[in-house]
Write a structure and sequence with these properties.
This is VOC domain-containing protein. This protein is of the alpha/beta class. The chain has helices at about 15-25, 80-90, and strands at about 5-10, 30-35, 35-40, 50-55, 70-75, 95-100, 105-110, 115-120.
Length: about 120
């Protein structure tokens, strides 16, 4: 098997709102969109992010009403404090303050309009 691309697909109530959040605050580009669907790319992210509206009949019945929960979109960045300051200036609510773990991970979190958790992290501590 050869993998040519990777994506994470999340079901949310309002795909356009989640897409706009990643475009505005995290530099993603909307590659494709349709009713109930948005696909975002960012060359340096290593994966695409896809938002699907909950209830879409194209999804298997046991997945249609599942909201993206229990997962974190985590992005490793070079300047964690700079990103934290930028997001605060942009008015994004920080939902988990900058935290330092004993193993050297430093991270903070925000949530998009559909409550999807986005975490910025570094290992540079």
């Amino acid at each position: 098997m050869q993998i040519s691309a990777s994506a994470v697909s999340l079901t949310v109530a309002d795909p356009a709102a989640s897409a706009a959040f990643l475009v505005e605050h995290f530099g993603f580009t909307q590659a494709m969109a349709a009713d109930g669907f948005a696909s975002l790319t960012r060359e340096d992210a290593g994966m695409s992010v896809v938002f699907l509206r909950t209830g879409l009949e194209t999804l298997p019945a046991d997945q249609r009403d599942e909201h993206a929960a229990g997962l974190i979109l985590a992005f490793v960045v070079d300047d964690l404090e700079g990103e934290l300051a930028r997001l605060e200036r942009e008015g994004v609510a920080i939902t988990m303050p900058l935290t330092v773990e004993p193993w050297g991970e430093r991270a903070f979190q925000v949530r998009d309009p559909n409550r999807v958790i986005v975490q910025l992290v570094d290992w540079n501590g």
